[in-house]
Structure formats: structure tokens, C-alpha cells
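re: that chain from earlier
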Amino acid sequence: MTYCVGMILDRGLVLMSDTRTNSGVDNISVFRKMFHWSVPGDRIISVMTAGNLATTQSVISQLEERNKAPSERNNSLLEAETMFQVATIVGGLLRETIGTMASDNGQRAAAGTFNASMIVAGQINGMEPRLFLIYPEGNFIEASFDTPFFQIGETKYGRPIIIRAYDPTMSFEDAVKLLMVSFDSTLKANLSVGLPLDLMVVERDNYEPVHQRRISANDPYFQAISTGWGEALKQAFDSLPDYTFYNPRSEAAE
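^ sequence. v structure.
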């Protein structure tokens, strides 16, 4: 399983992904799920992946090959005129890859075996930062005022805190803190999501990451967030009004 989040703010984009891939509890590996390409002064494009590892690696490899020699290959992300075109390219390639793998395996492939989904984020010079969620079928939706972040993979455990605390005007630092809490909640609830985590921050009109790092299990800030969030939840729970048992019949008799 996987957990990836892409968030759009007034200031830009914040992206985070885990790195765990598993085929059963005794076969766990670490694979990068966040990728980006940038042209200084022109564009920055990032893709995060979830789903069948063979599918996602094939899509990323094909994108890499196209980007190495864009003039010789059609549909390079480095030549797309808009982020909408970028999402269309990634969606089409994802759909084709899933279809090819399913066809090659025929009846041996169970329904959805090769499915994958992706988050595409970035900005092209002269346009707004944009964020897309790509489905296995190749179609996609775009983030908006009403839906300012996307998740793929194991989404349910980390979603409530983002919904409650997200603010489009928040600082990058607060956004990273929010995602740290979201990932900590997911890690605690699902062993198929695991450290290390990859983080990237993209500032509006800055076509290179302004902050990028890998967060390991012994990262002091992540440990402080995990411990502090657990303690804060316990304190919040203790501060809530107590529930009182009572007997409605005895009150009526009085």
C-alpha cells in the first residue's frame, strides 16, 4: 500500500509520499514514489504514484525517456504547453500501460491487478500552479477551492486532520507540519505504509524545489511531531465533558 498527498496553497504546492512497497508481510521493500522534472525559469512538474509497482515504474521510465530527448519523442512533459496537457499525457500513458500489461497477461491477470493512480503537480511559466488526480482509466480531476488537496493509496486515516486544519493561506512550515501529522496517523493505523517519507515544497513562480528532503525513522522533528500529537490527543480527550450514566426511570419517579 501507499500514501501520497498533494496540497495546493496560495504560496505554492506541498507534496509528501511514503516509500513502502509490500507483497505480503514478509516481503517489504523501499521504492521512491515521488518524481520531478524542472527547467529553471520555465517549469517544474512532479508525479507521485500509488498502485502496482510494475505499472508505475513503467510509466515513470517512459516519461524519463521522453524527457531526455524531447525533440525526438512525442508528448514530452518538457514540451507540453500547459499543466492540463501534462495531466493528459500522464493519464494517457497510464491507461496504455495498464491495458498493455493486462493484455499481455490475459486470463492470468485478476481484475485491477495492474491498476495504479497518480498525482500530478506543478507550474509552467506564466500560469498558475495546478494539481491533478489521475485515475487508472487515464481520466483526471483538478484541485479547486472546494477540493484543495488529493490523496492516493491509504487515504482514510490521514484525511480527517487535513480536512480540519487545512487553510489555503497557511505557511509552508504549517503545511508540512499538517502533513507530518497526517502521515503519522496513517503509519500508526496501517503497517503497509512506512518510513522513510519524501517531502517536496514548490513555491509559486519558483521552478525548482525550495525545500526537499527524505524523512527517516530517526528524524528528530518527525519523532517530536509523533510524540506531541499523541500527547495532545490524550489531553484533548481528557478535557472533553464526562459522560454520566443515569436511570431515566428513577428521574421520572422523582
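The chain has a mean pLDDT of 93.
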